[in-house]
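Crash report, auto-generated. Payload:
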Amino acid sequence: MGIFQTVYDKIQLLAGDAWGFMIGILIIVALLGGAYYALQGAAGMAFGGSKMAAMSIIGIVSIVILVLSAFLLLPALGDMLKSSAPIAPPWQ
Amino acid sequence: MTQAGIIVKNIMSQAWIMIMALIVLIAFLGMLAQVFKGASGALLGTNLWVAEAVAGVLGILVVVLFGFMGLPAIVRAASVGTVGGSCGPISEVGQFAGSLIGAIGGIRMAIAVFQAVASAAVGGSGGMSTALTEMAETVFGMLLITVAAPVAAAFFGVC
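Recovered output after restart:
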């Protein structure tokens, strides 16, 4: 990257920090969501609200799927993007 | 002239590589932000957010793949018809200008793709149309040069 290497290193450092921060926030939100849906399901079961319990199970499953997609799918997509990036400029 | 052209093109090549790397970085962060939006939507029970997040991830992927696959082909195609058909100093100047214009056009288009990816990363759609307009402008400008250069060569007296 030549003369732009220093700038790129700093941007990459910032992006890495942002990535770690967002992963942490995502885990917190997923945990809160899981707790919320567990509470909803428990409350539903306590007074016989079967729909509430069913919705809470669906909610927990959907959050798990979303978070798993973030942790498994995104790195794979990123590797694909990195490998398909044109290294040499087209005018060379 | 040739040495100066090599130096300038070298700097532009480094800029091109950096822009491509930045596109990958922004795409990573944008996709994660969209997943975060989807998880928040699932927490709050808003289906629209989840749907928007899935569409956002796919949109970023499409824009980046367009930039990586289509952009080099467009730059190569637009650079094919650069200056030729003259001799003497005008030929050297023309070749220098032609290669420089191709490199500048490529950089402009790469920046346009970067803007489109950044726009898609935050869920916007306006950046994509701006990027496509800018690409069309660049290609049109490069095509105009292929007409203007022979005219200038004739004006200065070709052999």
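Post-recovery validation: The CA atoms of residues 22 and 86 of chain A lie 28 Å apart.
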